[in-house]
User: Fold this.
Amino acid sequence: MLIDSHAHIQGKEYAGEVEAVIARAREAGVEKIIAVGGAGDMSSNTEAISLAKTFPDIYATVGMHPHDAKDVGTDELKKLKELAADPKVIAVGETGLDYYYDHSPREVQRRVFAEFIHLAQETGLPIVVHERDAAQDVADLLRTEGGGTLRGVIHCFTGNYEAACAYLELGFYISFTGIITFKNAEPLREVVRRLPLERIFVETDSPYLTPVPHRGRRNEPAYVRYVGETIAKIKCVSLEEVARVTTQNVRELFGV
Ligand SMILES: [Zn+2]
Ligand SMILES: [Zn+2]
Assistant:
């Protein structure tokens, strides 16, 4: 049984179909799904929580994507702190830094990311980090603001081996999406090969990043299986072994 450790199934892409999407995930051997808040606007957080309250195998996270860091003020942080107290909220995020798109000014992204690191520490929750082209700054902030006790996962990892090692040293897990199934992703598959399975998560980041052979269509948690199969092939182990270890990893961090 696999866990899709990062999916935005509360999104409008699944309106009216969530039940069917969850049923297909179960049939594909996906035992739990983490509904990640913060992609879009504040409502994505409350919607993730309401899904988690409806379905026992769904858990929620609360945060705000670095794209929208410019929209996070004192009121939003206060509201997120309240939401984080819900028993089905298992992490803070997604948050982080995205220097590829730069949808929010970098200075603002860094300030808000630091706020979320502090929220994770205050609440005792782990953190779900989005990082694109910002490995140095993310590692620096996790180190300087995290106080040495912060734990979490770098989701949708697309960096190099050195960046991955810096995160592992900080005690973080590394999560891979369907990108590792793409034809041109050989350098990333090489990173997978060199990392210990004991520090790896699998995720879909649904509705985005649909793995081969469904690439080009909407993604959904059932397809996390293709990510698991690709890791199994890279590491010359069975899918069952990948499922067993990555599920244990997610349980260890998120307590689900
Ligand atoms: Zn992300
Ligand atoms: Zn995401």
User: Anything to note?
Assistant: The radius of gyration is 17 Å. The chain has one domain: 2-254.
